[in-house]
From TrEMBL, chains A, B:
Gene: purS
SUPFAM superfamilies listed in its UniProt record: PurS-like
Alphabetically ordered keywords of this record: ATP-binding, Cytoplasm, Ligase, Nucleotide-binding, Purine biosynthesis
EC number: 6.3.5.3
Descriptive protein name: Phosphoribosylformylglycinamidine synthase subunit PurS
Molecular function GO terms recorded: phosphoribosylformylglycinamidine synthase activity
Predominant location: cytoplasm
Family in the record: Belongs to the PurS family.
Family annotation (NCBIfam families): phosphoribosylformylglycinamidine synthase subunit PurS (TIGR00302), PRK05974.1 (NF004630)
Assembly with partners or alone: Part of the FGAM synthase complex composed of 1 PurL, 1 PurQ and 2 PurS subunits.
Pathway in which this enzyme or protein is active: Purine metabolism; IMP biosynthesis via de novo pathway; 5-amino-1-(5-phospho-D-ribosyl)imidazole from N(2)-formyl-N(1)-(5-phospho-D-ribosyl)glycinamide: step 1/2
Function: Part of the phosphoribosylformylglycinamidine synthase complex involved in the purines biosynthetic pathway. Catalyzes the ATP-dependent conversion of formylglycinamide ribonucleotide (FGAR) and glutamine to yield formylglycinamidine ribonucleotide (FGAM) and glutamate. The FGAM synthase complex is composed of three subunits. PurQ produces an ammonia molecule by converting glutamine to glutamate. PurL transfers the ammonia molecule to FGAR to form FGAM in an ATP-dependent manner.
Transmembrane segments: none
């Protein structure tokens, strides 16, 4: 079995209210030095067998159709040893 | 400036309803071969200056106090070239 990670983040030009909320809260908790925060989603998919190129292409299709909204989000797909 | 990524995932023993919902939807979209899905959050923090060990320790503290719920979630902190 393999673990494939899909990271989904808001497109750079899209307003990220969640990220802005975190950015605003950090100074109130005494943290400094953070210039920007962006928040997205992380999916860990456990796959039967090896993560072949074909499997990664299928995961990219899952990301496009189900895990992300291609209008406002970008995604990346990679194999990770968890 | 550096980008530090914080990944927040549900603890393994914690029920992950979002992940289960995605897992259940995949076959309906014609996808097979996925044994499990876990869904979490990804934060990209843009930091002033270099990501020193001290900065990474501060980010871990931010993750513990603000970005995650340590009772039900685990987090990892790493530097990433975005």
């Amino acid at each position: 079995m393999a673990t494939v990670v899909v990271d989904v983040m808001p497109k750079p030009e899209i307003l990220d209210p969640q990220g802005k909320a975190v950015l605003g809260a950090l100074p109130r908790l005494g943290f400094s030095g953070v210039v920007d925060v962006r928040q997205g989603k992380r999916f860990e998919l456990t796959i039967e067998g090896e993560a072949t190129a074909e499997v990664l292409a299928q995961v990219a299709e899952m990301a496009e159709k189900l895990l992300s909204n291609p209008v406002i989000e970008d995604f990346t797909v990679r194999v990770e040893d968890i």
